[in-house]
Amino acid sequence: MFIKVRKLALMGVALMAVSSMTLSARAANYTPVNGTATSFDKYLIIDKEANVPAASFSFTIAPGEAMAASENSMAVLAGIGTPVISGPAVFTPNDTAYEALQEGDSLQLADNEKYAFKKLDVDFSAISFTEPGIYRYVITETALQEAGAFVQDTQPKILDVYVSDHDGNLEVSSYVLHTSADAPARNATGGSADVNENAAALEDKVTGFINRYQTKDLTITKQVSGNQASRDKYFKYTLRITNAGPGTKLIADVTQNAEKAPLANAATVYTQETMGEANNIAELVCDENGSAEHVFYLKHGQSITLKQLPLGAAYTLSEVNEDYVSKDLSQVDAQTYAANTGAIGADNLTIGFQNTRDGVIPTGIITSIAPYLILVLLAGTGMIISGRKHMSR
Predict the structure, then answer these.
(1) Is the distance from CB of 320 to CB of 236 less than 8 angstroms?
(2) Is 290 in contact with 244 (CB distance < 8 Å)?
(3) CATH second-level architecture of 30-213?
(4) What is the DSSP letter of 339?
(5) CATH number of the domain at 215-356, out of 2.70.130.10, 2.40.10.120, 3.40.190.10, 2.60.40.1140?
(6) Could you give the C-alpha distances from 95 to 50, 51, 248, 283, 365, in angstroms and in order?
(7) pLDDT digits over 180-232, tens only?
(8) Distance of alpha carbon 266 from the chain centroid
(9) How far apart are CA 156 and CA 138, in angstroms?
(10) What residue spans define the domains of the chain?
(11) Model-level pTM?
(12) Quick one: which of 274, 323, 314 has its CA closest to 296?
């Protein structure tokens, strides 16, 4: 009895060994296939009047988690190895921005928006796939140390690589980028469903990551008051911008409510050439530190608007008030005007100075000589009367 059991056991081991060899042989039937390359887009949505900012966005890619098959979904395999992303998406102020969607782009724009984009490649050429299946990877955008005006796309994107058996040979048949971590849905034959079907788990396909660049306008204005003040007089303003991003181009709207070529007048101490050189400007370009400084000349009621300053940018406005009394407009009307030093936040801002020169205008005869003048007049009058009396005799 013991010998029979032992023989059966040995036979079982032999069968298992043969089965294992058969499975290994089958697994070895496929010649491994290396991946190719795919790509995804990085979109940057900005205000329609804004210039593209200088910005760089980086990404990481890592194998995703395996998922077992279910009655309604396919199995998902963890990605093999780590593909290489071609590099950061680098935007510059010279980049083109589009007001209409380009072919193949998947994003939505408001009426006052446009966008720029960069394409990044994902290289799978060093990744070797050995079996048909859906291999999953996860792409994540690296968070900026200081987000400032940027609203980043924080949702990781799923990149599934479809490896298929084509007449006994492996081939990489598709790369699908989407947002849901769900497994692909199964069709009636147990395979993957079309990602465009309503029942499919991958109806959330995307073409990339979408960031937004938030900006606001800063208006500087001048008010003059007082009975001894000149409303024709031009005052010198100096505006300093910091933390706006290296190379950022700020739009300067001078002509709408001011003059590119102010005319010299008797009340103004600056020359026409000096004022024209300063006001004849269409944009301010920030230096490598994200700073810019410029001089403007304004008279009563005039204003200049710097458009599309990024959120978080700081500003300081100063002036040469000469012999006028100077006051921040925010001290005059805090509801309408912001302080002349601050940062760009959620709203458009208006800042500026009120310059006042007011006094008592002297009227009548100068008091210090009035008594003497009256005596002289009285004496003169007496002499005239006396003379008339002599003549009448």
Answers:
(1) yes
(2) yes
(3) Sandwich (2.60)
(4) -
(5) 2.60.40.1140
(6) 12, 8, 12, 16, 72
(7) 999 988 887 777 765 554 444 456 889 999 999 999 999 999 999 999 999 99
(8) 44
(9) 7
(10) 30-213, 215-356
(11) 0.78
(12) 274
